[in-house]
Amino acid sequence: MSVISTHKDTENLTLTFVAEFPADIDRVWQIWEDPRQLERWWGPPTWPATFVRHEMVPGGESRYYMTGPDGDKARGWWKIIALDGPRSFEFEDGFAGDDGEPSGFLGSTRCVVTLEQNGGTTRMTTVSSFESAEQLEEMVKMGMEEGVGLAMGQIDALLAA
């Protein structure tokens, strides 16, 4: 399992995941930058993602949907806030409506991804910041903590391919 720790901080309204991968930083960066690789791990294994738009540049936007076992679709969006590849990037994300555009459902979160080379491995830290304690608790109730952990658990196989 690539995820080595998770931490929910209700005081600072954050949810942090730390994972380590047996690959160099440039290879781990590719799994964020390339939408075909991103969709092989973004989303829990039973809810694979399809990115229909992915602009990995400051101000760029992404649109995607995840397809559940019954064919249900959950749509989401990103807006890239800052980018310093291959070391870090920051994006805002949230739920989208059937048209793929932000729906406003549960507001948005801000996620900072940091990659650090450590010998032959890369440490990836993702910190999601929430607008309120209610939003954080609702997202955790919906399975975000478990879902992100399962999603990141798919990265090892992708990197080994």
UniProtKB/TrEMBL annotation:
It holds the Pfam family AHSA1. InterPro entries: ASHA1/2-like_C, START-like_dom_sf. This is Uncharacterized protein YndB with AHSA1/START domain. It comes from Paeniglutamicibacter psychrophenolicus. It comes from the Bacteria. Gene3D superfamilies: 3.30.530.20. SUPFAM superfamilies: Bet v1-like. Belongs to the AHA1 family. Transmembrane segments: none annotated. Residues 23-159 form the Activator of Hsp90 ATPase homologue 1/2-like C-terminal domain.
